[in-house]
Amino acid sequence: MAAQVGTGYGGVALHLDEATALVEIAAAVSASGRLKELMPIPESPGDSFDQGEGRLPKEVSFAARNGFLLALALRYCKLQSLPGALGQFAELRHLDLVGNHLTHLPGSLAGLVHLTSLYLDENQLTSLPAQIARMEGLRELHLDKNLLTALPSHLAGFTQLRKLHARGNRLSTVPESLGSLNGLADLRLGKNLLTSVPNALWRLTNLDTLDLSENQLSSISARIGDLDKLKMLDLGHNELTSIPESIGNLRALSDFLYLSNNRLTAVPESLGNLAQLAYLNITDNQLTSLPAGIGNLAALKELRLYNNRLTSLPESLGNLSNLRELHLYNNYLNSLPSSLAGLQNLGELRLQSNHLVALPESIGALVRLSYLDLRNNQLTELPESIGRLSNLTHLDLRSNRLVSLPASIGDLPKLEKLDLRWNKLSGHLRWMARLEERGCIVLR
Whole-model pTM above 0.70? Predict the structure, then answer.
């Protein structure tokens, strides 16, 4: 016999068992101070969650259709446990419990067999119940910032899973069953205690996002090259001493590649195969040189290389015609390649804390440069061509050995800030007054 439909819950027509369950849940939320006593959980429009991957617009709300709950959000309600009545919502698709104080999940959740997205971030969960395996239709499982020491060994049952997020837990291992999730596209295991990952992970060839950052990985398998659909890869903040040549197989990488904060002394020549990559971060390593192939990264817009041991840059760097930002401070550079003149689209250049002793005249060709940071080097002079940087807004020359400056700086039409502190400039440069008169901040 079909459940009776009532009209008594906040004016919303719900099946009686679901309306009764909502009353029980509302009481628990009221006890936490998140709702006023006897106030119903507010309804959101029935289609409000369809556009947001299961996220309702309000932290405490529900969405219903045809008498059944389809989505429920109980975010930041200080709940230490969940009412058993939660398992009554047989048609529930989206459940959001982010930011509570949950240490365990009730077995009654096994009744939510139609659930497609489950958000459990920012709780205190140490494990997941075996019953969760009954949620075979789950497409998203969000577990960030809990106290999990292991993922369920029965992951193979989640055949529909597309997103698995478990950042910021205490995972020291990953089950081999992870390799059975053939449809997985987004896997985030950063900020855990992983010293290795199973070979099964490299079978997930439909991944487009992989985050293994902030772990204790000392090596990465050459099989990472099998993940040829990746668009974003984060291996930063580990203990890697090398990157396999096979990384050059990841030609679909188009968003970000993070290799920062490792122990790398070199990166492979094959890195140049990543012609679609927009952002590359190799900061805080021990690089002494860069491969010439880096000049093949035609789509690159931002390149971060600071806090390394670079003594020179390859001439091919000038081929990065789409580069907007170049960050090179805290290295050991003593010159720049003349090819930098080819960086026509550069938007920002940072060369802080190197050992630069000269800039090439060709720097004036960087006509789209907007931010030039040359702090903490050993520059004694600047080329006259610096006055051709017509889009420059910020010029930072602090802590060098400059005793004079080219007057052409005074002609820079868009300069907003000029920092000359901690140099040994002599006399008053009259062109500075011109800059200040039109609103440029000059610090010396």
Answer: yes
